[in-house]
Amino acid sequence: MKKVFQSNYEAIHTFAQRTHPEGCNQSRSVFFDGDKIYSYGYHYLLGEFLDANTILINDEGYSNSTSKHIGILIGATSHYKQYYKTRVNLDYIHSHVFNYLKPKLAKARKPQKYTSEIFSLWNSLNEYITERKETKTRRRKEYKQLLKFVDSLQDANTLESLREWAKKEKEKKQRKEKRTLKEKLNKFYKYEVDFFRVGNLDYLRRSKDGQYIETSQGVKIDIDEARRYYNILSSGANMRGERIANFITKSFDNLLTIGCHNISKEQINKISKLL
């Protein structure tokens, strides 16, 4: 069974598909063994499957390269339940709230930004505690201090102001995402970038040398394998469980879901003309 993969993308996506017990990229800057994947050595656990459907991602990156590994892993495991260390680790959250967010909140002209983040972290932490049955966490003094502080923020005026702010922020984010997608797609089709993730959809192109179909998550599929898969797809056959490279098809209705990829019919029709 193949153990050494051509790129970070291939190694991390193979880990995410759970089809290989171990593997690494060519430089071994990213490698996995069973349920765990590492970045630049065993000192940095990049991610760990907690069960068949859940992964804990260590998003507390401290170098550009590791940050890139984190970004690829987030995309590659988007079809699983994802938890992030910075949103479920009590020690990290306690420090972040009391050493950074609380002082900022006290001086803020628009406190909703910091209040929103505090509530979001608190909700994520409690979801994780409940789902993973980490009930001992609630008995720790750090948890009790957070609980008291969060309760102090939850008066009616604060919550109403926060709802209004969140609505405006959501609209602002949607407008920005639309602009960003247009820019990233333009660069992707010009071969200026190999990886991006904006929204929930993925995009396809033919490689410069014509030998592969490339996805916007950095995955390469041999052109002959892509043709084989497309012929089955276009025949109207039930695609559930059909493999393409290391990826398994989950569903095909208005959207083709393969592993962590969500590909629209529009993209499929567009790439079919290049096969």
Structural account:
With 275 residues, this protein is α+β, with helices and mostly antiparallel strands. It has 3 domains: 82 residues, no CATH class; 100 residues, no CATH class; 69 residues, no CATH class. 48% of the residues lie in helices and 20% in strands. It is built from 9 helices and 14 strands. The protein has a 7-stranded mixed β-sheet with strand order 1-2-3-4-5-6-7. Strands 11-12-13-14 form a 4-stranded antiparallel β-sheet. A 3-stranded antiparallel β-sheet has the order 8-9-10. Helix 2 links the parallel strand 6 and strand 7. It starts with a strand and ends with a helix.
- Binned, the helix content reads 40-55%
Which range does the strand content fall in? 15-25%
State the major sheet.
7 strands, mixed
Question: Please, what is the average pLDDT?
Answer: 93
Per-chain topology:
Layout: E1 4-5, H1 8-17, E2 22-25, E3 30-33, E4 36-39, E5 45-51, E6 54-57, H2 64-76, E7 81-84, H3 85-88, H4 90-107, H5 112-131, H6 141-153, H7 156-189, E8 204-206, E9 212-215, E10 220-222, H8 223-234, E11 243-244, E12 247-252, E13 255-258, E14 261-264, H9 265-272
Parallel strand pairs: 1-2, 6-7
Antiparallel strand pairs: 2-3, 3-4, 4-5, 5-6, 8-9, 9-10, 11-12, 12-13, 13-14
Task: Using brief descriptors, characterize the structure shown.
single chain; 275 residues; alpha+beta; 7-stranded mixed beta sheet; 4-stranded antiparallel beta sheet; 14 strands; 48% helix; globular
